[in-house]
Specification:
With 218 residues, this protein is an alpha/beta fold. The chain has a single domain, classed as 4-Layer Sandwich (Purple Acid Phosphatase, chain A, domain 2). It is built from five helices and 13 strands. A hairpin with a 2-residue loop joins strand 10 and strand 11. The relative contact order is 0.18.
Length: 218
């Protein structure tokens, strides 16, 4: 399975349109969006931002980010693409989603406690599933801010250490574009699409294993 992974669109339609034009060449089996579709805007803006990708008629799964408006999760549910707090299967592969972020100093729109993050994972995950999370796991290259601090989710990290999902696609920390590992789990922060970044991931459905990750730029 070829996965096109994007995150942190932040309402920039131009980048989404450029990426959509490249999708036929990339030829993904699924498109994953790891949140912050808008920049503190609502469902109407989110629908406009997503439309170029929805028109491609490719399987698409998404979670909302901490900067998405209050009605954005409802839109994702209406479009039947949300995996927040649930499990969805495409072919033989399962996906579990965590929208929003862990608690920040900025009191943003969608923030979860570590207990809430742990509960979502415990309820939904089956062995071999891919996790699509706006927030990255703590103490990885994917959660390091400019100052060097690690601000990701301890609950997500703990879950990874215990259950070993094959792949976690995340975002949230714009400067932390990276591919990292926790034991056998591959952590991919594609970098923000509003800056032109995305990732292409080759995933073996039978082995439930990442074969290759390419961090790309428009």
């Amino acid at each position: 399975m070829r996965i096109l992974a994007v995150t942190d669109l932040h309402g920039r339609l131009g980048g989404v349109k450029r990426l959509a034009k490249m999708v036929p060449e990339i030829d993904p089996d699924v498109i994953l969006i790891a949140g912050d579709i808008t920049h503190f805007s609502g469902a109407e803006t989110a629908r406009e931002i997503l439309e170029p990708l929805l028109k491609l008629r490719k399987p698409l799964l998404a979670v909302h980010g901490n900067c998405d408006g209050r009605d954005v999760p409802g839109l994702l549910n209406e479009l039947e693409i949300s995996v927040h707090n649930r499990r969805t299967q495409i072919g033989s592969l399962g996906f579990v989603g965590i929208g929003g972020s862990n608690v920040t100093p900025f009191n943003t729109v969608w923030e979860l406690t570590e207990d809430e993050i742990a509960s979502i994972l415990a309820k939904s995950y089956l062995t071999g599933d891919i996790i699509l999370s706006h927030v990255p796991p703590k103490d990885t290259e994917a959660d390091r801010v400019h100052s060097g601090l690690h601000v990701g989710s301890p609950a997500l990290r703990s879950f990874i250490e215990k259950r070993g999902p094959p792949l976690v696609v995340c975002g949230h920390i714009h400067e932390a574009r990276s591919v990292d590992r926790i034991s056998d789990t591959v952590i991919v922060n594609p970098g923000p699409l509003f800056r032109g970044h995305y990732a292409v991931i080759e995933f073996d459905e039978d082995e439930k294993k990442v074969k290759d990750v390419r961090l790309e730029t428009l």
